[in-house]
Amino acid sequence: MGEGLLHHVELYVSNLEKSELFWGWFLEELGYESYQKWGEGQSWKLGATYLVFVQAEHKYLDVPYHRCRAGLNHLAFHASSRERVDEMTKMLKERGINILYENQHPFAGGEDYYAVYFEDPDRIKVEFVAPSP
After folding, report:
1. pLDDT of residue 2
2. Mean pLDDT, range 44-50, rounded to an integer
3. Cβ atoms of 77 and 128 closer than 8 Å
4. Torsion angles phi and psi, residue 92, rounded to 5
5. Would you say the pTM of this structure is higher than 0.85?
6. What is the DSSP annotation of the chain?
7. How many Å is the Cα radius of gyration of the chain?
8. Are 129 and 109 in contact (CB under 8 A)?
9. Average model confidence (pLDDT) across the chain
10. 8 A C-beta contact, residue 44 and residue 33
11. Are 115 and 130 within 8 A, CB to CB?
């Protein structure tokens, strides 16, 4: 394993069932495989890196997640091409997933930055970005 590469990221979620449906589909579309599953969590793995989603305890759900507070802002994933971003955008829309910055899509990140931005069930921003031209 390469030193400095991410080993895993763990996210606490407000509704594990909704998060499993959302993230399971998306991550498996990117080539991740189901890795671990237990009563309060689920993970998916690609190569040496895995993402973990854990049900937050009820006592911690009083303040909902917001990406502008201290902590995680968003997760960004590489896409293989602009066509793959377009394909993913179509699949997201078919699933009723809200596309962020739709009036600027796919250049919301700038004229040389081709991506789709969307949100998970807890409104964590997710980005799927094509390689630079």
Report:
1. 79
2. 96
3. yes
4. -60, -45
5. yes
6. --TTS--EEEEEES-HHHHHHHHHHHHHHTT-EEEEEETTEEEEEETTEEEEEEEPPGGG-SS---TTSSS--EEEEE-S-HHHHHHHHHHHHHTTPPEETGGGTT-TT-TT--EEEEE-TT--EEEEEPPP-
7. 15
8. yes
9. 95
10. yes
11. yes
Cα 60-63-67 angle, rounded to 5 deg: 115
Alpha-carbon torsion angle 36, 37, 39, 42, nearest 10: 80
What pLDDT score was predicted for residue 3?
82
The two tokens of residue 48 are 């040496």
pLDDT score at 133: 81
Find the length of the chain.
Answer: 133
Residue type present at position 6 = L
